[in-house]
Amino acid sequence: MFFKRIHNFFPFLKLLKLLIFLAIGVQLAVIAYTHFSGYYILQGYGHFFTRFAVGTSLSLLASFFLAYPDLLLIQYFNKFLPWGKRVFKRLFFQLFTSVFIAAIVAIGITLLSHQIKSFEEDLGEVLYYNSLIASVVNLILMTILEGAIYFEESKKAQQEASNLQEELSQIKFEVLKSQINPHFMFNSLNVLSGLIKKNPDKAQEFVDEFAHIYRYVLDTIEQPVTTLELELDFMRSYLFLQQIRYGQDLKFTENIGGELLSALLPPLSLQVLLENAIKHNVVNKENPLKIDIFTRGDWLVVRNNIQPKTTSKSTGLGLKNLRKRYAFIGDTEPHFKVVNGHYVVMLPLVMNEDQGL
Hints:
The protein is α+β, with helices and mostly antiparallel strands. The protein folds into 2 domains: 2-169, no CATH class; 180-355, 2-Layer Sandwich (Heat Shock Protein 90).
């Protein structure tokens, strides 16, 4: 479980390549320094390769003992001491823990190596120098890991942002497509055609509300949020058109707290819910459809009685898109449920900062 968590954070193969490269580099640097300084002179190529193979193996083993605690520390510090907020405090603790871990690992590996083959040099001196080397190496390793993790997270964030933008564009397209639905256009134009002959004044009002709907769509389709006041204004225009078609068979009530009118929600959220209610339920004189729109706390509630059409099939695309649009503006999702023969949708309202809610 521990290793799986670490490898999800930093893939094993990438870590292995990094540590092999680091172990080889450290051994070449140490062997070259000790030889040319006269501290430990090589006796030939065979001596070099033997020492290089043993030293690299031990260095690789030590680097694993360093890398896993380092990755665990980086995870912990990213959560509790992020760079953007507590830079100096994190720097101090990360330096201290890096050196401490390196010293413990160096002492353990050195004693293991001494058991395999005793050092000719003083053991205490070897422990000191190995701890010093391990501390420097671990600081380098920690820096490399931090840089690699930052690079990967930045690349991942850019990819996610690109995917979200593409998804948002698709959602906007679906919303716009629903607004220019041929059935809605056809029905509206049929109603308008009948009104022009029977009631020209009502026909003019119908055209005005129809134009208002599409003007609102064009004004808000590129915006992530709109105010509840504007959304309710759009809703009244939309229901006006529907009531021209259905008459008193379609009823709605509205009870909204005035203090919530400046609250925010995704544009055209109400249109999705109202369209679903009308599309999937019988609306006639014997079975009038009643839609109630009201607020409860900082939620907007849309409720309608259930009287399903036998021929209606739901794809769920509208509600799925609504959930996705809410995901772009906050962590709270809409709630959909059936209560006492009514379909109830609760939309979270995002409060403006100046509302203090």
